[in-house]
Amino acid sequence: MAESPLQRYRYFLKDSVRKTIDFSRTDQHQGVEPPPVEKPFAAETPRVDLVAPDAWSGIGPVDVETAIRRRQSHRQFSGEPLSLDELSFLLWATQGIRRQLDPATVLRVVPSAGARHALETYVCVLNVEGLESGFYRYLPLEHQLLFEFQEPDARRKIVHAAMGQSFVVQGAVVFFWTTIPYRMEWRYDLAAHKVIAIDVGHVCQNLYLACEAIHSGTCAVGAYDQELMDQLLRVDGNDEFTIYLAPVGKVDGTRAS
Ligand SMILES: Cc1cc2nc3c(=O)[nH]c(=O)nc-3n(C[C@H](O)[C@H](O)[C@H](O)COP(=O)(O)O)c2cc1C
Fold first, then answer.
1. Nearest-5° angle of CA 10, CA 13, CA 19?
2. Is the CB–ligand 1 distance for residue 32 below 6 Å?
3. CA–CA distance, 136 with 145 (Å, rounded to integer)
């Protein structure tokens, strides 16, 4: 009997593909240079120093059990701004670097298959104290924000690309995660794609938990118009494309348990 589309697409969730791969033929095994751990940028592009992990204030404390217990998706925000300390904390908590093992390998605060970390983080700053509105990219190695561009009518365009989900622009900042799949494919070839999707789930879960330390909330967003979102972020949609987003905003002190 012919495979149904559902059965065919379920294959993505399995690891059967691994047995079909000749790992001696991957780019890594063929001696191809590893891709950079961070998307390169022009040295002259303006960058903003973030608050270093040992220097930020106003974060927590919140114990892990409380953070896990309280975590929930928030789609309503109070309209208060985030501080630069808080944004620095969130960026570190989602993609910060723990240790560089060699020029091509870093360990971050989240796990990643083979430590390949095939993700980039963009933020649209809407209401962050001391930071001009616009699109930025997080540079984990430098712990800086790279200014990307200012987009006229950004709120409306984000909502449109998020298929009308208007809560996405009602917080202080929107996180967008793209993937550069080759960073994972270099080692895992066709077995790269499922693990990239798993990786970004860890990242967003850290965002949810970190929000608990700054009286903020977030909501994972997996439904969006792929082409519009990629155009908005100015990524090519092939070697780099959007895979997930999440708004962050302040929430009222009273929460559902
Ligand atoms: C992969 C993924 C995609 C999601 N996409 C959306 C989305 O596009 N829009 C939305 O409002 N919520 C989205 N959510 C949030 C879920 O609706 C939410 O997690 C779920 O209702 C459970 O609620 P809780 O997070 O408060 O426990 C998504 C969650 C996940 C994990």
1. 105
2. no
3. 6
Model pLDDT for residues 200-232, shown as the tens digit of each residue? 999 999 999 999 999 999 999 999 999 999 999
| 204 CB near ligand 1 (under 6 Å) | no
Q: Looking at ligand 1, which atom is closest to the CA of residue 162?
A: 8
Tell which atom from ligand 1 comes closest to the C-alpha of 204.
31
| Domain regions of the chain by residue span | 5-250
221 CA to centre of ligand 1 in angstroms: 6
CB 138 within 8 A of CB 92: no
Fold of domain 5-250? NADH Oxidase (3.40.109)
Pocket test for ligand 1, best of 71, 73, 168, 212 (most atoms within 8 A of CB): 73
Alpha carbon of 245 to ligand 1 centroid (Å): 11
Rounded percentage of the chain residues whose pLDDT exceeds 90 = 96
Q: Which residues contact 112 (CB under 8 A, 6 or more apart)?
A: 118, 195, 199, 202
| Tens digits of residue pLDDT in 98-138 | 999 999 999 999 999 999 999 999 999 999 999 999 999 99
**Side-chain-facing half-sphere of 139: CA atoms under 13 Å:** 21
What is the average pLDDT score of the chain? 96
Ligand 1 near 220 CB (within 6 A): yes
Cβ of 90 less than 6 Å from ligand 1 = no
pLDDT digits (tens, 9 = 90+) for 52-66: 999 999 999 999 999
